[in-house]
Amino acid sequence: MAQNGDEALEMLDEAVDVVLLDRMMPGLSGDEVLERIRDSGFECRVAMVTAVEPDFDILEMGFDSYLTKPIRSEQLHETVGNLLERSTYDGLLQEYYSLVEKQATLEATKSSAELAESEEYANLTERIDNLQDDLSQTLGGIEDDEDFIATLRGLGNGDEH
Amino acid sequence: MATNTDQSETMYDLTNILDIDALESVRPGSNILISGPAMTGKDALAFDILADGTRQQQGAVIVSTGDRAENVIADYRDRAGTDTVRLGVVDCVSDGGGNAQSGDGIYVHNVSSPGDLTGIGIGITKALEGLHESGADRGRLALSSLSTMLTYTDRKTVFKFCHVLSSRLDAAEYLGLFTIDSGAHDDQTLQVIKQAFDGMIEVREVDGTREARAVGLSDSPSEWVEF
Q1: Residue A156 in this model has a pLDDT that exceeds 90
Q2: Cβ of B227 under 8 Å from any chain A Cβ?
Q3: C-alpha–C-alpha distance, residues B46 and B52, integer Å
Q4: Do B122 and A136 lie within an 8 Å CB cutoff?
Q5: pLDDT class for B8, splitting at 50, 70, 90?
Q6: Higher model confidence: residue B102 or residue B226?
Q7: Residue B132 lies in domain
Q8: Which one of A34, B1, B9, B157 has the fewest beta carbons within 10 angstroms of its own beta carbon?
Q9: Does A137 contact chain B (CB < 8 Å)?
């Protein structure tokens, strides 16, 4: 628990998975702290704590989620759980991509006869199928609008040119 | 990815546009890549498939990386043969400077660039929401084109984007159509992007005749048919 934005930034390291950030704070504002967290490169999820229910715009600003006051313990657990699950999803998606890329490399360099005999290729294909299942079961397969938008926002981070 | 196995859901029949058996009963949530060289009618094919849905009272969403919303809407009305369409347009070209407005079953969202994935996601979400409220519980989405997106964003990001969007469309029970210029990318890129889809419609032009076939939607590729 940090008393203000400066303290929060001092406490931030790779061990932090989720940050709950009040928007209205003495000193640095929530938005400024968020910007510095994103600039720091630490891959944590940030939920904004707010008195008013915001629109999707809040996700566009770079927050991953929000909690409206007064915060109930059930709501808090749900939000943190969901944010952790998003990190799991991102990890799975990254792994899925690297396997698909390997598979594509094999397909581009080997004949179909060679592929049929390749144990590496068979293993890859199996792992890709399994990951596809895992992905469709994580975050309920991105059924929720907030999960959808926040996941897309995560993709753009550092990857856009 | 189409993972829903509920038997009661209604399949999408695309055979009014392309007479191919594998396209007679396409599962909701399926995402199809339309791939072919430049100037072979990929976009027209995607929009025709959407317009066919509009004539069956389905919703339509177009994510456009090349054409402003007002042009997309005018072209779409012509194609559907009616002014009363339920259409969401995510315009990645006008950057807020477009004239097209939401209203009368039309939902327009402007995005700063084809590389703004968050903006595109928000636009699609708002379009789906608007269409749902207007009574269209199912529908078809076309994204034109992945090739333009690939000039703004790397292959890895576009692949992930396609996967995440596929999942969202699966949940909405929409049909997704995504066009890509097969001549603009190396084989490996095409191979990777293909993996984010349930199947593919390949398009080509032979002696001035446009042809298409379905790949990956049945056990073996279909015959080429004219369109």
Answers
A1: no
A2: no
A3: 10
A4: no
A5: very low
A6: B226
A7: 27-218
A8: B9
A9: no
CATH code at position A9: 3.40.50.2300
Q: Which chain B positions have a beta carbon within 8 Å of A161's beta carbon? A: 115, 152-154
The verdict on A136 touching B (C-beta cutoff 8 Å) is yes
Q: Which of B12, B95, B108, B99 is nearest to B58 (CA)?
A: B12
pLDDT for position A56: 67
Tokens of A87: 């990190």
C-alpha B100/C-alpha B68 separation (Å) is 8
Both tokens of A108, joined, read: 């581009």
User: Is B75's Cβ below 8 Å from some Cβ in A?
Assistant: no
What does the pLDDT look like over A45-78, one tens digit per residue? 999 888 877 776 777 778 888 888 888 999 999 9
Does the distance separating the beta carbons of A135 and B157 come in below 8 Å? no
Are A42 and A97 part of one and the same domain? Answer: no
Per-residue DSSP letters for A83-109? HHHHHHHHHHHHHHHHHHHHHHHHHHH
> What value of ipTM does the predicted structure carry?
0.89
pLDDT tens digits along B85-126: 999 999 999 887 777 788 889 999 999 999 999 999 999 999
Place of tokens 């969007």: B165
Number of domains into which chain B is organized: 1
Q: Is the pLDDT of residue B53 over 80?
A: yes
Mutation choice for A interface testing from B163, B193, B220 by most A CBs within 10 A: B163
On whether the CB atoms of residues B176 and B7 are closer than 8 A, the answer is: no
Q: Is residue A54 part of a domain?
A: yes
Say whether residue B171 is in contact with chain A using an 8 A CB cutoff: yes
Read off the CATH number of the domain in which B111 is found.
3.40.50.300
